[in-house]
Design a protein that fits this description.
alpha/beta, Rossmann fold, 3 domains, five-stranded parallel beta sheet, 15 helices, 9 strands, 49% helix
Amino acid sequence: MSQSLPSSIDATLGLLQSQGYVADRALATVLFLALRMKRPLLLEGEAGTGKTEIAKVLAAALGRKLIRLQCYEGLDLASAVYEWNYARQMMAIRLAEAAGGGQGGGLDRSRLEGDIFSETYLVKRPLLQALEPQKGGAPILLIDELDRTDEAFEAFLLEVLADAQVTIPELGTIRAAEPPIVILTSNRTREIHDALKRRCLYHWVGYPDTARELAILKARAPHAPAKLAKQVVAFVQAIRREELFKAPGVAETLDWASALVELDAVALDPGLVSDTLGALLKYQDDIQAMQGSKVRELLDQVKTEAVR
């Protein structure tokens, strides 16, 4: 069942919290403005900080359909917008030719061309799907990891974001009766073009502070013992201050906490941390750098801070 859009920043915070997403007020503010102003929202930040989850949570909270376009290098219109079902078109042509020949009449090619380039043979991809009317209201369109595509695809997106429409040469311009709620994410492996950024509201999704990360852990992994949860968050906060190839995101914090719970852990110790670092760090060089005395050093910091 669809819900009405939040009427205030506090209501937006509550909406996210109702789905277990612990947001700060800055994020709730920009999300509220994006919904009220009907502007796309561009979320940038390190991988694993919860950008994609925002779109999922919003769709669930509002009771809207989530349509996701996962971006990648080489993404083209056929994968993002539409393509023609060539196999069905060819079959229709062969059947028409056979029927025309059997009746002794000629084939009306202009009429046939109009028939085969109709919606019957159109394969709709995420961007085109998002422009169609949806039960429960406009869908949430998640354009995920936009930085993986190239500038040519960004240029095409300008029409979609500015006018909520796409142009199909054989059919004309298809415009949304109600524009989708658009959320774009980027891990900033490259800069998004200014022309696209100007059409969006913007928010940087950073790593949470200790208090918020602990609240996230309690909300998403309530089965973790309180002492263990505090130590996990403190250790993750400490490890992010180290020189790593890839610091752990919130997703890794949750994975690690869940792994420790599966091992019936109630507190951290050097051996346990060393054995489970693969749930927290995803590069061997980082894991190696944190082994041995470094783990004990960080655990000592965590215990010292806990006493304060």
